[in-house]
Amino acid sequence: MDTDANKALVRRFVDEIFVKGNAGAVDELLAADFTSHTFPSTGDGRADMKAAIERVQGALSDVEFTVEDLIAEGDRVAARVTARATQTGELMGMPASGKRYEIGEIHILRIRDGQLVEHWHNHDALGMMRQLGALPGG
Predict the structure, then answer these.
(1) pLDDT for the residue 93
(2) CATH of 3-131, one of 3.30.499.10, 3.40.50.1400, 3.10.450.50, 2.40.37.10
(3) What gap in Å lies between CA 60 and CA 101, rounded to an integer?
(4) What is the DSSP string of 45-81?
(5) Whether this model's pTM surpasses 0.85
(6) Which residues of the chain fall short of a pLDDT of 70?
(7) CA–CA distance from 21 to each of 18, 58, 59, 61, 131 (Å)?
(8) Using alpha carbons only, what angle is made at residue 50 by residues 104 and 39, rounded to the nearest 5 degrees?
């Protein structure tokens, strides 16, 4: 795939998985040997992603992602996004706050044969916890 097709795949991943929480898209977008280097793995990357979707859907509502930058080279795409959501359920051990947060995130994805194979993710967890009232300064 060329870099434009890879970028389009990553945009679709952000929309289907992060915004819509569409677990049905996981098997189409993620390779059978998908690995996330961000969250604990059971050895089944697709099942891990579906479990992550379920956790997030139980904790957040009004989810929005704005893709600020997509940078592609070879088989990798880096996405800088702004994520916004309202915490309506338990998240990372924090009880529901009803508060909204906005944070920056970076996702790097490796693509093979039109599917995502690897995922690395960094986000402003400290900023999120402050905005949700779990730490002073929010």
Answers:
(1) 87
(2) 3.10.450.50
(3) 10
(4) HHHHHHHHHHHHHHHEEEEEEEEEEEEEETTEEEEEE
(5) yes
(6) 1, 137-138
(7) 6, 11, 12, 10, 23
(8) 50
